[in-house]
Amino acid sequence: MKESTIMKIHYGTALAAVALVAVHVLMRLTMGFAESLEYESVLANYKFIPYAAMLELILILLSIHGFNGLRVILLELKQGRVYEKAVSYGCLAAMFGLIAYGSRTIIMTNMGMV
Amino acid sequence: MAQVSHIADEQASTPVSSSKSITLRIARYNPEHDDSSQFMEFTIPYERWTTVLEAILEVKKHFDHSVAVRYSCRQATCGSCGMMINGKPRLACFTKISELKSDVVTVEPMNNFPIIRDLAVKFERLFDTHHKIKPYLIRDDAELESDEKEFLQSPEEVEQYIQFANCIKCGLCNSACPTMATDSSFVGPQALAQAYRYVADSRDKGKDSRLKIIDESHGIWRCHFAGSCSQVCPKGVDPAMGIQLLRGYLLGFRG
């Protein structure tokens, strides 16, 4: 993939994440802070499909943005063909790993496994 | 020949009228023999118009002729005498001692360049990256060989790139760039500013190929916009702005 395409995704995910996190914060303000962190409240959020979908989207956006940022930092720290490939594929794998783990929590909650 | 010798003797014995003097600290380092750089100090008299290069040449003439320094035109045109002067990348021939407002003037080789000896550094990387971005007008061969056609431009079209054409390849921008310090594959502000110089030139047809060259993992996107490249340029070139304008092309904001 061209670096300009990657950076367009990088900037796009940042803007979208800021917008969605703002919605998420506003949603949390509908109840008290301590109350919103209660176990039952968190489970209820995951079971409410539109809200769960938004949380999943935030997870994907932040994972893409964050791991690409990490890739850029690591590429600037050290150079070399093998190192750069390892960094790029490592960050990609970590990104998918984090998305999968976060999605698993939401899916398990909706399937009544929690 | 005798006359030349006489002039040389006269110059060497010219009494110095200045009452002011500075301590000139010169970094000495020979990679073949030394483990690290060491400073040698010299007391040099100066006048209001004395440049740092003249002070270094004074050291070479009267104290230690083995100091390695690269210079040529002495008028900020050739870009040979770039060095760190009191911690900032500057041209030695363009920097007056009086404007430094310090009793101690420290000269070191430029950062982000391999040292050949003392103040002289290798320019291979700068010239390689400069060459890589194709620093020339790209047109069809038939157009270039034709005697009938001139590539006319309006003043507005010239205005788009003219400041970037003032680059003298002195390397001060690359020396000041924080990304150059850590990323050995980064193209660098000098080459990127030159890429913009040709991309913005209405006579050029090589925009796509140049943008392709700089649009890679160690290309234009690694610039952090510290702006130090523009701050140190002795010719008023603004590489940081050129880089941002190039990004505009790559992000689709500019045609």
Structure description:
The complex is a heterodimer of chains A (114) and B (255). With 114 residues, chain A is an all-alpha fold. Chain A has a single domain, classed as Up-down Bundle (3 helical TM bundles of succinate and fumarate reductases). In chain A, 86% of the residues lie in helices and 0% in strands. Chain A is built from five helices and no strands. Chain A has helices at 3-28, 33-36, 39-47, 49-77, 81-110. The mean pLDDT of chain A is 94. Chain B is an alpha+beta fold and 255 residues long. Chain B has two domains: 21-121, Ubiquitin-like (UB roll) (Roll); 123-141 and 152-251, Fumarate Reductase Iron-sulfur Protein, Chain B, domain 2 (Orthogonal Bundle). Chain B is built from twelve helices and seven strands. In chain B, the strands form two sheets. Chain B has a five-stranded mixed sheet with strand order 2-1-5-3-4. In chain B, a hairpin with a 2-residue loop joins strand 3 (82-85) and strand 4. In chain B, helix 4 (124-132) packs parallel to helix 9 (189-199). The model of chain B is unreliable at 1-10 (pLDDT under 50).
What key attributes describe this structure?
heterodimer, A: 114 residues, mainly alpha, 3 helical TM bundles of succinate and fumarate reductases, B: 255 residues, alpha+beta, Ubiquitin-like (UB roll), Fumarate Reductase Iron-sulfur Protein, Chain B, domain 2, 2 domains, 5-stranded mixed β-sheet, two-stranded antiparallel sheet, 7 strands, iron (chain A)
Name of the CATH homologous superfamily of the largest domain in chain B: Alpha-helical ferredoxin
Overall shape of chain B: it is elongated
Q: What is the CATH topology assignment of the largest domain in chain B?
A: Fumarate Reductase Iron-sulfur Protein, Chain B, domain 2
**What proportion of the residues of chain A is helical, as a percent range?**
over 70%
Distance between the termini of chain A: 39 Å
Rounded to an integer in angstroms, the radius of gyration calculated over CA atoms of chain A is: 17 Å
Q: What is the helix tally of chain B? A: 12
How many domains in all of chain B?
A: 2
What is the N-to-C succession of helices and strands of chain A?
A: HHHHH
Please name the CATH architecture of the largest domain in chain B: Orthogonal Bundle
What class do helices, strands and sheet pairing of chain B give? alpha+beta
Radius of gyration of chain B, in angstroms, nearest whole number: 21 Å
- Terminal residue distance of chain B: 62 Å
The rough form of chain A would be described as elongated
CATH architecture of chain A: Up-down Bundle
Tell me the CATH topology of chain A. Answer: 3 helical TM bundles of succinate and fumarate reductases
Major beta-sheet overview of chain B? 5 strands, mixed
* CATH class assignment of the largest domain in chain B: Mainly Alpha
Q: How many structural domains does the protein architecture of chain A include?
A: 1
Domain 2Fe-2S ferredoxin-type (chain B): 20-110
EC number (chain B): 1.3.5.1
Keywords (chain B): 2Fe-2S, 3Fe-4S, 4Fe-4S, Iron, Iron-sulfur, Metal-binding, Oxidoreductase, Tricarboxylic acid cycle
GO biological process, one term (chain B): tricarboxylic acid cycle
